[in-house]
Design brief:
By secondary structure, the chain is an alpha/beta fold. It has ten helices and 35 strands. Residues 1-23 and 523-529 have low confidence and may be disordered.
Length: 529
């Protein structure tokens, strides 16, 4: 009997030792706690944030934290609230001069105090709320890339593409350094057909309950070792027969992460619209929605069916998952569709195709006429030219190559019309597939920024005049050109001349040049690109 009492006492002592509790003092002169009210007022509140507590500073005289222990800190709020949307503990990073999210907020019953668990408490601490209409802005970022400046300002979550699953259930890769942003950082574990060998690895992991559990433990261990606040699972292209196993794996992983106060988000492919049903394939949205904290719909490439199918898809998804957990992913990449399938292009690649130049004259002679043509937008050849497609709400063009192709360009105009779905279906927010500061991508952040500020999309389209070809030449005269072919009335003098085509997607301007060498009429013609 006495041994049982002693064991109970020992367990109680161990439990108290695991967490060190600090209650923040309010009097800076008499503060004896881990954190005290700070007198420093030069630390500016980040844009799009509302401060919900006073600023606190780590007490230099406080007892040091023993290795392996965490601090559970309670901060009194300035105004009581029971709404925890967008609330987080933020610490000031003096190296980058920015505030960073350092812990999730747990409110007490009256909403008067915020509690957080800290492994590495910062010098300065406060509770902020994101002012973004309660919506998440998720930024995906390839490892080693610099985040777009607007993304750094607006993002609430940053996903760095860091890990892939190995066949034995372990993880390959290392977490990226935290991007310079106020967003929380959840690395991605990714598997898809585009990442060699990863889908077979997941097939093996999901083949037995033991492999599944081992994989979940490997992830939990990595999260703990790297002190991550959350993780994203982006296992795409799974076979439908893995549906139950994948659901059980996510439930097991979510339970383990949530027990540690960590976050689990998912990136899932959109269901398919069938003749008489919606096909979820390997992904049980209702069950997964109960386990995950957020679910991002992976980018839908085929713009020919995007606006036709998305309302039905979102109606279904939001009927089985809390709409506040559902995130629609936008992309800055153009899409090309052909008989070979779909592929992604940068804006620069798409416009390079559109502005490709050629000549349709056998003689390049002074004092004559030469036809210069933008071969992929020549409407006289039955092509569409660069135009706004109302049915897809994108700038698009068709061109002839191996049976014909259609290219849809993503920019601020098309992004605005996609953000409309976030408002209409009251989704939890938006994501951007590639949020790097890459000049070759379409800048859709100019559409995201006003949406974050107002909660309403800006629905504008470019005028057709903005999409027409514009031609210039260094000598002679140009006739026509609006339909993609221009007639150059050449000068009388022989020599090299440059014909320039300028095309715009309604936002950016792109130039293509061809250098032509004119001979006197009796001489041999030459052309050089």
């Amino acid at each position: 009997m006495q041994l049982g009492v002693l064991a109970a006492i020992a367990i109680t002592v161990i439990t108290i030792g695991v967490l060190i509790w600090f209650f923040l003092g309010r009097g800076s002169g008499s503060c004896k706690e881990a954190y005290c009210e700070a007198s420093r007022s030069t630390l500016e509140i980040p844009a799009y944030f509302d401060q919900h507590s006073k600023l606190f500073q780590r007490n230099p005289d406080a007892e040091p934290i023993p290795d392996g222990f965490n601090l559970e800190i309670r901060i009194p709020l300035e105004v009581a609230t029971t709404d925890d949307r967008g609330l987080s503990f933020y610490g000031y990073n003096s190296e980058n001069n920015i505030w960073e999210p350092v812990a999730n907020v747990l409110l007490d019953e009256l909403g008067e105090r915020a509690t957080g668990l800290f492994t590495d408490p910062p010098q300065y601490l406060a509770v902020f709320r994101r002012l973004n209409e309660g919506r998440q802005v998720v930024a995906y970022l390839e490892q080693g890339k610099t985040i777009h400046p607007t993304a750094a300002l607006l993002a609430t979550v940053v996903h760095t593409l860091d890990f892939t699953p190995a066949p034995d259930g372990s993880l390959q890769g290392q977490p990226s350094s935290r991007p310079a942003t106020t967003a929380v950082h959840y690395p991605v574990i990714a598997a898809s057909r585009e990442i060699n060998g990863t889908v077979p690895s997941v097939d093996n992991i999901l083949s037995t309950s033991a492999e599944r559990t081992n994989h979940a433990r490997e992830i939990l261990q990595r999260v703990a070792v790297h002190n991550l606040t959350g993780i994203d699972i982006a296992y795409l292209d799974l076979r439908a027969d893995h549906r139950t196993s994948f659901t059980l794996f996510i439930a097991e992983l979510a339970e383990g992460l949530h027990a540690q106060g960590k976050v689990l988000t998912l990136t899932l492919p959109a269901p398919l619209i069938g003749a008489d049903r919606i096909d979820e394939g390997a992904y049980d949205w209702a069950a997964l929605g109960k386990s995950a904290d957020l679910i991002k719909i992976a980018p839908i490439r085929d713009q020919s069916t995007f606006r036709l199918h998305l309302p039905e898809l979102l109606s279904y998804i939001t009927s089985v998952v809390d709409p506040g957990k559902v995130i629609l992913t936008l992309t800055p990449y153009a899409s090309e569709k052909s008989a070979e399938g779909l592929r992604s292009l940068t804006l620069t690649e798409a416009m390079t195709i559109a502005s490709k130049l050629g000549i349709r004259s056998e003689n390049l002679a002074a004092g004559g006429e030469v036809q210069v043509v933008a071969v992929n937008i020549d409407r006289d050849e039955g092509l569409s030219g660069l135009r706004w497609q109302p049915e897809t709400a994108t700038v698009a063009f068709t061109y002839k190559l191996n049976g014909g192709r259609t290219v849809w360009i993503e920019n601020a105009f098309s992004a605005g019309f996609k953000l409309e779905f976030v408002s209409v279906y009251n989704l939890g927010g938006l994501a951007v597939e590639d949020s790097s500061d890459d000049i070759f991508l379409g800048n859709i952040w100019t559409a995201v920024e006003p949406f974050v500020a107002s909660g309403q999309p800006v629905l504008l389209r470019p005028s057709q005049a903005q999409l027409l070809p514009n031609w210039e030449v260094t000598g002679g005269n140009l006739v026509g050109g609006d339909r993609g072919l221009v007639t150059w009335q050449t000068p009388l003098e022989a020599g090299s001349y440059t014909v320039t085509l300028t095309l715009s997607d309604g936002v950016e301007r792109f130039e293509s040049r061809i250098v032509l060498f004119l001979e006197l009429e009796s001489e041999t013609p030459e052309a050089a690109n």
